[in-house]
Amino acid sequence: MAAFDLFKLSFLLNLLSASNLNLWAGNKAGPVGVFRPTCNRIECPSYDVIHTANGFEIRRYNSSMWMSTKPIDDVSFVSATRTGFRQ
């Protein structure tokens, strides 16, 4: 039992000391104004950086475009979702 407790403690300390968690003051956040890897796809809004400060930035996004459809009358949530997605 003591060996298992030692393993749990070791595992916890390993998780807390991981460099990718940014728990320590020496770790810097990623580059500001750079899109994440998932932003090579459809939903990546373009923006202008207005001000950059300690770990954050103020952005101005371009205008958005909204769309709507007529209401879907269906008892089945799955069927209504499928119909709405195809519109």
TrEMBL record:
Q: Which residues form the signal peptide?
A: 1-18
The organism's place on the tree of life at top rank: Eukaryota
Coiled-coil regions listed? none
* Pfam families on file: SOUL
Query: InterPro entries this protein is in?
Result: Reg_factor_effector_dom_sf, SOUL_heme-bd
**This protein's record includes keyword Nucleotidyltransferase:** no
Keyword match Signal: yes
Q: Which UniProt keywords apply?
A: Signal
Q: Which family does it belong to?
A: Belongs to the HEBP family.
For this entry, the protein name equals Uncharacterized protein
Native source organism of the sequence = Sesamum latifolium
